[in-house]
Design a protein that fits this description.
The chain is of the alpha/beta class and about 725 residues long. About 50% of the residues lie in helices and about 10% in strands.
Length: about 725
């Protein structure tokens, strides 16, 4: 009996130990779960959940080191507070965007981290650094992002995966008002079909995918169309995802409205409708011409209302609508009744918006006031705006680096407006930008007593994924009340981008700031232009860029594993190489004109050799390859014919574009484009100089564009540091230079 009791006691002690161990593990598990959840909820606030999602995708489990809380105090504009102690970072914010911006601010300034289009520098210490409490409130209600043209030059063929990364970038950089223009053609198809316009007529209306922004703005119809139905359906599904994520993040997307542009076929189904034919845009053939409805037509309100109703059914609304009726277009008004008719147009657009959404606010780009400033004097601009209530319209003053429309037009006569810069035209990816202006001018506008109803700060590039220093600076300016000390800011930028800022790096950036980053425009290289005996000479050789490249390369031992350093090295060395190719081409043309054939041949050979080297260097990065652009386009096709169509449409946009003056407007320094298109044209031109036989360049271009799968084999540089080293040495040895 005693033996049994002893055995029972021993077994009971064993069971008790197991129970104890079980409850210890259970307690540890619960603590771990609560620890991982505590930052994402109190009470599962949607803003905190959305911000937590962005940070988790960025940092994985390290996002749990951030405690996210909603601000209790009411503030008029987005604000965040940061404090960090003993490895835990607390971010308070009044919106999801404010929370993510606050976290990114901490990552940059405390952890020397950076998140950009070309990758991340995100080497976090095991224990996150302490940080003294800091509060930042933006002076702007809205931080607007995108240009209508961005949806052609950059995002035309993006899928959801790429859009998801971009939306995270927006949140981290504090954007809360993005243009959201994808998927509108599916709505227009419904609207126009409801009027009896048939598929054949719509095929002669919509342009190809890469040219839709200019169709939407009334510049061109049908060019490189028709649009496949699979495109309309696919983009509609994509827009639903984009808008859902924007709204989860607390952003206010701006969606399209009716600007007055209609298919010519509307005249068939509504013979009484007064259509006005617009003048040709950019030299396009008449068959691509556009039509605008008379503002006095009852159809103007009817169509606008129907479009917004259908749009809301498909996508919902946040009550902000973009409509531009006269972007780079001659205004079809009678000079005698000029001001009355302009007022009618403004009134018609606004009433068509509010007919569809009584809470609607009209946004309009201010590019026309600069581009056609001979027409848009103060009385004309006032006339266009005067019938629109001041609190229901926002002017995007698009290009303050070129033209301060708010100054020329008395802060837009009582309307709300957004200070913005374009920076990039055509999505050109060379190095350029006026950093000094970007760091100072916004503050001058913000504090000007004549600023009127300034409510926003905008980034309006025609193309992105270039010059990341510009966009880090501009998104910082959107949260600043005072001008930025550029020298101090560049030092902090380099610390967050590369991890340290050694003397050679400082020298390189001083040279960049005094050369390429004093250039407000991204001009074409001669190597990108159609070959000829009269080169533009617009790209002047600047030896400071070569010096910057060598000093930047001297930092390779320290930074060669950093993807952002490698990206910048490729850009700097590549641009220096392109400038030297131009010098060789100019020398070759000079030697040809002066009858020095041997020197001509040598200069051309050296230029072609450098073109191949430049192509190899650019191939190192997927975002600098023509193949990436083509692959993204082809993925939208549901069969081979559609895939080939999207490929030719994509190639057409980055080459000849369309009208006589637009060739190479969207020029890219891309692998594939350099070796096959730019070099291909120059080689055939060189052969024509040798043989005397004429080279039909436009015929060759069209065949290259419309021949699918015709890129030659890519030869990427496996090591950009080694390739840059060889390339700089080769340039130094070229006799012709």
């Amino acid at each position: 009996m005693l033996g049994f009791q002893n055995n029972y006691d021993a077994a009971e002690r064993q069971r008790s130990a197991k129970r104890t161990l079980y409850f210890v593990f259970l307690a540890l598990f619960i603590v771990a779960v609560l620890s991982s959840c505590r930052k994402s909820e109190p009470n599962a606030d949607p803003a905190i959940t959305a911000a937590r999602g962005v940070l988790t995708k960025l940092m994985g489990e390290r996002a749990n080191d951030f405690v996210l809380k909603k601000m209790t105090a009411s503030v008029d504009r987005d604000a965040f507070e940061i404090s960090a102690h003993n490895g835990e970072v607390e971010i308070l914010g009044n919106s999801a965007v404010a929370l993510t911006r606050g976290a990114y601010y901490y990552l940059r300034h405390a952890c020397r981290a950076q998140v950009t289009w070309s990758g991340e520098h995100l080497e976090l210490p095991e224990k996150l650094p302490d940080y003294i409490h800091k509060k930042i409130e933006t002076p702007y209600k809205f931080r607007l992002y995108y240009n209508v043209c961005t949806f052609g030059y950059t995002t035309a063929f993006w899928d959801w995966t790429r859009w998801e990364r971009e939306l995270d970038w927006m949140a981290l950089h504090g954007i809360n008002m993005p243009l959201a223009l994808v998927g509108q053609e599916a709505v227009w198809q419904k609207v126009w079909k409801s009027y009896g316009i048939n598929d054949e007529e719509l095929s002669a209306y919509f342009t190809g995918p890469a040219f839709l922004p200019w169709h939407r703005m009334g510049n061109i119809n049908r060019y490189d169309g028709p649009l496949p139905q699979s495109w309309l359906d696919g983009k509609s599904a994509l827009q639903k995802k984009i808008l859902q994520r924007m709204r989860e993040l607390g952003m206010t997307p701006v969606v399209p409205a009716f600007s007055g542009f209609v298919p010519k076929a509307l005249q068939r189904v509504r013979p009484s409708a007064e259509l006005r034919k617009l003048n040709k845009w950019a030299g396009f053939n008449e068959k691509y011409g556009t039509f605008i409805l008379s503002p006095l037509s009852p159809l103007f309100q009817e169509i606008g209302k129907k479009f917004i109703h259908e749009y809301i059914k498909m996508y919902g609304t946040d009550h902000y609508y973009l409509a531009d009726s006269f972007n780079e277009l001659d205004v079809p008004v009678n000079e005698v009744n000029r001001y009355e008719e302009l007022a009618d147009y403004g009134d018609a657009v606004f009433r068509s918006i509010t007919a569809g959404d009584p809470q609607g606010t009209w946004l309009m780009m201010g590019w026309l006031f600069y581009n056609q400033r001979n027409f848009w004097d103060q009385p004309s601009t006032q006339a266009l705006l005067k019938k629109v209530p001041d609190d229901r319209m926002i002017i995007i003053d698009l290009a303050n680096e070129r033209y301060a429309g708010w100054k020329a037009h008395d802060a837009f006569y009582g309307k709300k407006w957004i200070y913005s810069t374009i920076h990039n035209f055509g999505g050109r990816n060379r190095l350029f930008g006026d950093l000094d202006l970007y760091s100072q001018d916004f503050a001058r506008a913000l504090h000007d007593p004549k600023r009127g109803k300034l409510i926003g700060f905008g980034l309006s590039p025609e193309g992105i994924e270039n010059n990341q220093v510009v966009y880090e600076l501009l998104t910082d300016a959107a949260w600043r009340h005072e001008a930025i000390d550029l020298d101090d800011w560049i030092g902090n930028y380099c610390l967050s981008r590369y991890g340290s800022y050694p003397e050679e790096m400082q020298q390189a950036w001083r040279l960049l700031l005094n050369s390429v980053y004093q250039q407000p425009q991204g001009r074409l290289f001669d190597l990108q232009r159609r070959p000829g005996l009269n080169l533009s000479g617009a790209e002047k050789y600047d030896p400071r860029l070569g010096q910057a490249a060598k000093r930047f390369l001297a930092c390779a031992d320290e930074f060669s594993d950093n993807p952002l350093y490698r990206n910048d090295l490729v850009n700097i060395v590549g641009q220096y190489c392109a400038g030297n190719i131009d010098r060789l081409l100019e020398a070759a043309i000079h030697f040809h004109k002066t009858g020095q054939k041997q020197k001509r041949d040598k200069a051309f050979k050296s230029a072609f050799d450098l073109m191949q080297d430049l192509d190899n260097l650019m191939a190192y990065r997927p975002d600098k390859r023509l193949e990436t652009w083509i692959d993204d386009a082809r993925q939208w096709g549901v069969n081979d014919a559609e895939k080939d169509y999207y490929e030719s449409d994509a190639k057409r946009q980055v080459t000849v574009w369309g009208g006589p003056g637009l060739s190479e407007y969207a020029a890219k320094v891309w692998s594939g484009l350099i070796r096959d298109y730019y070099a291909g044209r120059w080689k055939l031109f060189y052969e024509s100089l040798q043989t005397g036989k004429q080279f039909n360049v436009r015929q060759w271009e069209e065949k290259w564009i419309t021949t699918p799968g015709n890129l030659s084999a890519q030869r990427p540089a496996p090591d950009p540091v080694a390739a840059s080293t060889r390339l700089l040495k080769k340039i130094d040895r070229i006799d012709s230079l």
